[in-house]
Design brief:
This protein is an all-alpha fold. It contains six helices and no strands. The radius of gyration is 19 Å and the shape is elongated.
Length: 183
């Protein structure tokens, strides 16, 4: 297994950890907010685990971004032409931008929450922040029903091939050159 496939597989699986932790934080903070509960150490631990896992996920994404991703290499060769191909644009611009924005908002939310009194107000602050972050993350995930679809779960023996379409021909491409490839 080459480096790209290994990092991509870890990145793909870690998204589920991020989503599960976000849901756990949302459940804990909603019940804490609505039940007027004090902020517990466990609440802090779950929130920190969510933000830290999102940090690792974004770092893996950056490692994939440049120089090892064939999609990003294609984008870097001719960004203007690549913007016309939905899958390349999604990963080169939309996915990366949304994930970085989500990460920044998660850190801002954590900092703001720590300044709130340890009770329902902190639960409310974290709940609202994680809702926004989760919406952005969910919009940035390449779900199977979007043009830049990727499998829900990656398994071993994933093959990666460099796009066979020349950058000069990207301007005339209406469908993605990657739809028949497992990446």
């Amino acid at each position: 297994m080459d480096t790209y496939v290994a990092v991509l597989s870890i990145h793909s699986m870690l998204r589920w950890v991020v989503l599960v932790l976000a849901i756990l934080v949302l459940v804990r903070t909603l019940t804490g907010w609505r039940g007027a509960k004090d902020w517990a150490d466990a609440d802090s631990h779950f929130h920190l685990a969510f933000v830290t896992t999102l940090d690792v996920q974004v770092l893996l994404g950056i490692a994939l971004y440049y120089p090892i991703s064939p999609l990003i290499r294609t984008f870097m060769e001719d960004p203007a032409a690549s913007m016309e191909v939905a899958q390349i644009r999604f990963f080169a611009v939309e996915h990366a931008t949304m994930m970085v924005v989500a990460l920044v908002l998660a850190h801002i939310g954590r900092a703001v929450a720590r300044k709130k009194e340890a009770g329902p107000k902190r639960h409310q602050s974290v709940f609202l922040n994680v809702c926004v972050v989760l919406l952005i993350v969910a919009a940035a995930i390449p779900w199977p029903f979007v043009p830049a679809a990727r499998p829900l779960f990656r398994v071993e023996n994933v093959t990666i091939s460099q796009p066979e379409i020349a950058i000069s021909s990207l301007r005339s491409v209406t469908a993605s050159p990657f739809l028949d490839r497992a990446v």
